[in-house]
Amino acid sequence: MRRDQNLAIIGAVVTGAVIATGLVLLLIARVSPQFGASVRAAAVDVVTPLWSVVRAPFDGLGKGVNGIGDYFGAVGRARALEAEVIDLRARLQVAEADQIAFRQLSRLGRLENPQRRLVATARIVSATQGAVVQTALVAAGRNQGVRPGQPVIAADGLIGRTIETGLGSSRLLLLTDPQSRVPVLVQRTGQAALVSGDGGPLLVLTDRLGLQEPLQRGDRLLTSGEGGIFPPGVPVGFVVDAGEPIRVRAAASPRGIGFVRIEAAYAAMPATAATLPMTDAPVPVEAQRVGGIKGLVRGLDAPSTDGAT
């Protein structure tokens, strides 16, 4: 009981001393600001080491708690990275197997991939994007080897193809033109499809083949190489609306891109063989006996004399 009273008295004295000290400091600051500032600085110099000693256990405890949290966080991240490594290794194995199979098929079928060939590098002079026709002009023509039906590619992706060529300039059909059609592959799913323009700022994805897996916003579209004009693997655009119809934003815009590559058609389609003349067809034996096809026809048209009276 007496001890509690002594502790209460000591606490009251300490509290009173603190309050009195604060009042004295406040009074000194009012009377002499410079002296008050020096007193505060001296007090800070005295309190700072004491405060550091008092905070040391709490700082150590906080660091320990943070270290434990970092440890468990690192364990979780390590497990996630390990799972990702396992998944990537599995994908790598599949890719290696596919590559081996492709090499085997190439050797068996003597498959030859056409090489992309640069025709000219030119600057886009102007672009006309109307409601009906969307074309552009480039400063390269027949003198530079440009011909109609050649793909035009920018740094970001496909721009279109040449449709008219002059001596020193050419007109391009842009992807957004209603007459534009580009065979593509969905990079994520491997589906084959067709990208066409409708005169607006976005493209339309149609005619999907194979497994109709739902597309997602952000799916990338690459040229498939089908048709022989556009080389495979060139970025065409990415899906911005997976509804119906599926809307695609072009990977490259003709405005402000500067220079483009004009390449030769990736795999020119072979010319159709001329119709073989009739004389190359096998002639029946009966026709050979009567002087060919004409003789056979004359013989059939002649009136029969069997049984004439």
Automatic annotation (TrEMBL):
The keyword Ribonucleoprotein does not apply. One of its GO terms (biological process) is regulation of cell shape. InterPro entries: Cell/Rod_1, Cell/Rod_MreC_2, MreC, MreC_beta-barrel_core. GO terms for cellular component: plasma membrane. The chain crosses the membrane at residues 7-29. Residues 125-242 form the Rod shape-determining protein MreC beta-barrel core domain. It comes from the Bacteria. Pfam families: MreC. The keyword ATP-binding does not apply. This is Cell shape-determining protein MreC. The lineage of its organism: Bacteria, Pseudomonadati, Pseudomonadota, Alphaproteobacteria, Sphingomonadales. Keywords: Cell shape, Membrane, Transmembrane, Transmembrane helix. Belongs to the MreC family.
